[in-house]
## 1
Amino acid sequence: MNMPFTAKRIPAYEPVISPIAHDYDRPAQEWERTCAAIGGFNPCSGRLTKICCVNDAFIGEHLDHITAAVEKGLVRRSTFAEQLFASQADFDDFVRFVRSYPGRIHDRWHQALAALAGIDAAHARLISTEDVLRTFAEV
């Protein structure tokens, strides 16, 4: 006797915006210290300091800073590497560490990187982060 298969119903997917460090209240002095040490976007002053000392321990924080700066409209696609990074070596290290990032590159980070690569939001969700990073080789 054949019994019909019934799948367990699950709730529909509900998109959740991934928070970044800039979404939380932090004292201005903490932003100053962080941006002085590793660079990034200071939401209290509105200043963008070039990212330096890129290493895998800070890659999530670097991605947060880049995302915040891109979302604020502070970064030009044509000069983003020079605007965001203190040196070509820092930019190269960033790309290398993002490629080997053990966690998930969430949608908000991916959208910011895609914007820097000149990929619109509608197409960004159709390609991998690796594809986005490949376009950075042209920079």
Note: Residues 59-71 form the longest helix (13 residues).
## 2
Amino acid sequence: MPIAREYSAYMSTSVGKEFANAIKQVYWERLKRETVASPFYSLQIDESTNVTTQQYMVIYVTYMRENDNGSICTSFVDLLHVKNVESQSLYTNLMEFLVKMKLALHKMIGIATDGASVMIGANNGVVLRLKKDVLHLLGFHCVAQRESLATRNAFKLYKEFKFVDKVTKKLYEWVSKSTKQHLSFAEVVKDFNLGRSRKLKLLKIHNFCGSQEGKL
């Protein structure tokens, strides 16, 4: 068989999926062993709906990695397909996930979510349901989202922030137009004694918006 034809077989969609599933299985088993061995763990979860209106719950886990001098590690675990994003449905799917991962409830010490009522609702939120099973559980409103909401409100309320926002966007537009301008900007940053520890990478400024408006 010609070399080109032999190796081209590995470029098919079906083979690609097979490789991805094999990698997933190895990663999953390693992660399961590490999290089960950890003396404690915490979860970060969020619900979302994709462009095809399918609903999911993304799960991250933070745990102590014993074979790495007890370092704290946060890893992506799974993207669960859920029937709906109501509190009971999310809670049920999460409990099934914990059973699948063989994670003991008494080892769970914290859970971070967004500020949606389905998550932190005082009557039937997912966090409240979990606290009934795990009395010592601590619930946290995701710091990243709180910062996003605070920044969005600050940019609306204070004209100084609006000016900063305008300048940074203009700067990005100018620098991103050419490599030469990017290099020139890098020299300016260097002259101000900034960015010496790592290679300069200009990031695009994104608009901030709240999840309660369905735009986050």
Note: The first strand starts at residue 41 and ends at 49.
## 3
Amino acid sequence: MRLVVVSNRVTIPERNEKAAAGGLAVALREALEKRGGLWFGWSGEVAEASAPPRIAERGNVTYAVT
């Protein structure tokens, strides 16, 4: 079973980046890494309506960012 998170904001962590202390995003990221999962979120940038989401994989987590 995979965990799926949908949020209005998400930051794709850099490779080999250590998690910051505290916060909901850190807790969600750790849960996603342990179970495997998909995080849909908005980068905060405005893009063309037809622009496909940016996909990034970090460990067990796949990020789909619009």
Note: The first strand starts at residue 3 and ends at 6.
## 4
Amino acid sequence: MLIAGSLIKIRVYGLIRINMKLLPHAHSIFSRKFKKRIAYSFVSHIGFIIIEISFLTDTRLNGSLLKIISHGVIGAVLFFLAGTTYDRIHIVYLDEMAAIAIQMPTQFTMFSIFSMASLALPGMKGFVAKLIVFFEIITGQNYLLVPTLLITFVMAIKIILNPISLLSTLNILWT
């Protein structure tokens, strides 16, 4: 009986570790540290890029290249803004940063704009890359339908969890 209970706990731990690799946004929502929340968000973007590259079609490779470029620019700016925030106020935890954007409006306006770019809103750089990839998923030849549907489902969950993570961060910083 004791062995069965410990095996179940080990399996649950294994599922949590696999979930961490597949959906880091789920972990970023509960992270209290500012830079860690941004880092989890960008780890998920790397997973999105790997999914794009794995299909090896010209359109998806172009979309992933565009996503890599936008990921590099947006990530560098967001981490720069988080680092300069730490240098100015020496606070790491989001709970203690409540309404800090009112004291530094220019910095957090830039953070808000680049967070929206990270969300791939229309008119931003990441939107075109995601649009290319989803267009290719819909119109491309899918030889293995079930894995493609599974990957599309995981990508859709990532796209749903990304705004929850970043918008909750913006909510804490602005209110």
Note: Residues 32 and 94 are 6 Å apart (CA to CA).
